Amino acid sequence: MWERIVSNLLSNALKFTLRGHVTVTLRLLPSHAELVVADTGVGIPESEVAHVFDRFHRVEGMPARTREGTGIGLSLVDDLVRLHHGRVRVRSRVDEGSTFTVWVPRGRRADAGASPSPVADAGPARLSLARSHADEALGWSAGAVAVDDHLRPEHAAGRAGEPTAPWARVLVVDDNPDLRTYLGRLLGRHWTVDVAAGVAEARARLASASPPDLILADVMMAEVDGLTLLREIRADPHLRDLPVILLSARAGDDDAVAGLEAGADDYVLKPFSSRELVARVGAQLELSRLRRQRDQAVRTGDDRLELALGASGFVAFEWDTATKGLTFLGGDGGSLFGVGDVADMDFSALVDVVHEDDLADHLAGLERARTGGQPYAGEYRIRRPDGAVRWIRAVAHRLPRDSRRLFGVATDVSDLHAADDGLAQATDRLRADVEAMVRFQELTDRLATHPSALEPLLADVLDATIELHHADGGTVCLFDPATGALDVVVRRPPAFVTEPDGDYRVLRPDGAGTQSIPLLDRAGQPLAVLTTYTRHPGARTDLELRLAELYLRQAQAVVAVAAAGR
């Protein structure tokens, strides 16, 4: 909590100090601790000083490094100081600067909800908070300050893995030049990045022959906002599938819901962690690639089917229901039905070759087409003079201007029937892929909105991993760095027990056995081990396997963030 007070005051001072300096002083006095954050910034008008600690209050018209903000930072400082039974005051003069002074009494316990002491709030949570504010300040001055990222805390432990889709092109749309520069440099380490200073420039980029693979757009822009750009993209048939991530300093649920309802693939709040943003962009690019693969597979299947039908030897016919005459208008009807000479052919000759088990349904369908005008479409078997049985598919319609005549086409589909098993398997695989994509999206959405509590998150990740791996059960064990022991904290199902020499002892190539996945914290240190047990693995497509791997990468990142907040 103390870190939030210091970080918010320091962030506010940096935001409104365009030249000069910011000074932070901390003194331990006999009865209280005194924190002073003073700057040589633009100052606060006298009429506004009394309102700076009001929730959602913003001083309009003053120069600043960024126009973004929700007006809750200083209000939060005031609330947190009061929880510690302290006071915060401000003195300010326009064009000379502001001084914020915080007094916190010594020896008094904080109210419920406050951390008991600054020391108790140490650790990964403090580093995460400081890093988020540092990232925001770096974005304000990214165009003028070069930072060696390998020296920053988030890179000190090395990279756990490179982002996916290195081939991709990302378009950054933001009217803040400093933030554009920062985002371009951050994302440019992993992908090709183009920048646009507003929606007008973005429209020009999107109109080119080679649009980007993903758009990262700020919501709050001066002329046209990011939501408007998003709606234009979703309304364009050529761009509607383009992944869009929105950036916003508006932390309200309504703003995030509005962005997602407008069609955003993700909604990232400022200040953000650079590693989290890179991970989110990488995940959306990978999802987009998988969607394109799926769509291409569907289109390829449609093209192959169309070619197969075009080369299958259709026969066109016309049946005069008044005279019972049957005329073949195209194709080799005699060979198709095995009836020899088709000149002046009577319909009864065709009826004679229809298989007795299919004859009643076939005639009933034709009668409905003749009397009720309902299109006939059906398949039936015929028996040729040599005894061979062939499958025929026919479609027939009553002619609009001559109700006595039916026009139709027929073709031999025996080869397709012989391949029914293969087609059914292909359909099942495609259905499994589509269902896997839908379930994967549900699981990743749940990850993105999961509360920060670690053990419930680990339980959900285990449940999802068991489902994606078609496993029988599993466990999550937390690593105790003091003793090196692994303690089981989650078991699915609760009564699930494995024997050392049982069916789960060895991991076979088909996925049966025991599989363990380490979970690391943000410093790369062991946090937990997730283990699944599978006796009879179900068949999984390549896409399902890729989605399971992708979910685990995202889950590891979310678990690391949750562990840092403990």
List its traits.
566 residues, 5-stranded parallel β-sheet, 16 helices, 19 strands
Structural overview:
Mean pLDDT is 79; it is low at 115-122 and 142-161. The chain has 566 residues and is an alpha+beta fold. The protein has helices spanning 2-16, 46-49, 73-83, 124-140, 177-188, 199-206, 226-235, 253-261, 274-310, 333-337, 347-353, 359-372, 414-418, 420-448, 454-469, 542-564, and strands spanning 22-28, 32-39, 87-93, 97-105, 169-173, 192-196, 214-218, 244-248, 266-269, 315-320, 325-330, 345-346, 376-383, 389-399, 402-412, 473-479, 486-492, 513-520, 526-534. The longest helix has 37 residues, at 274-310.
**Individual helix count:** 16
| Low-pLDDT regions | 115-122, 142-161
Helix/strand/pairing category: alpha+beta
Helix content: 25-40%
Question: Number of DSSP strands?
Answer: 19
Q: Span between N and C termini? A: 13 Å
Mean pLDDT value: 79
Q: Measured on Cα atoms, how large is the radius of gyration? A: 34 Å
Largest β-sheet summary: 6 strands, antiparallel
Shape: elongated
Beta content comes to 15-25%
